[in-house]
Design goal:
By secondary structure, the chain is α+β, with helices and mostly antiparallel strands. It has one domain: Hotdog Thioesterase (Thiol Ester Dehydrase, Chain A, Roll), CATH 3.10.129.10. The chain has three helices and seven strands, in the order αβαββαββββ.
Length: 152
């Protein structure tokens, strides 16, 4: 193992790997999570597959991470599955290869069918981006593809 791969494999205290829930998650991750003050903080180490030709983390990767942060925040609060209906982001500062990137989301409003979430993504003390999203609750489906009965 090289010095750079050793340094890049060290996780900040409290973080543990989240098992990937999809092929997309495996391709983009691994993702890590810790709980602090009741909130789930997600993180990832920027790898070679995440950078663009300018040597910074690709905006699409940052948006994918923000979507996961927003979604996990809503799941922690509501416990319900949902899909992204809308997401808006503001890029503030770039991240680079090897950077440890973290993000936390917060539910701002929830209705019968929708949940509204905002997030901040950072590196150290530097905000990299902010995001907001609207998620639509979905009904889980059984193996036959039919919606499962609603639980009260």
């Amino acid at each position: 193992m090289t010095a750079s791969s050793t340094a890049s494999s060290v996780l900040p205290p409290g973080f543990a790997e989240i098992p990937p829930m999809s092929g997309f998650g495996r391709a983009m991750g691994p993702w890590y999570e810790k709980t602090e003050n009741g909130k789930g903080i997600l993180g990832f180490r920027a790898g070679e597959r995440h950078i663009n030709r300018l040597g910074i983390i690709h905006g699409g990767m940052m948006m994918a991470f923000a979507d996961v942060v927003l979604s996990e925040a809503q799941r922690r609060v509501t416990g319900r599955p949902s899909v992204t209906m809308r997401m808006a982001v503001d890029f503030v500062s770039p991240a680079r290869l090897g950077d440890w990137i973290e993000g936390v989301g917060e539910v701002t409003r929830s209705t019968r069918n929708l949940v509204f979430v905002r997030a901040r993504i950072w590196r150290g003390k530097h905000t990299l981006m902010t995001a907001s999203g609207v998620f639509n609750f979905i009904r889980p489906r059984g193996e036959d593809g039919k919606p499962l009965p609603e639980q009260e």
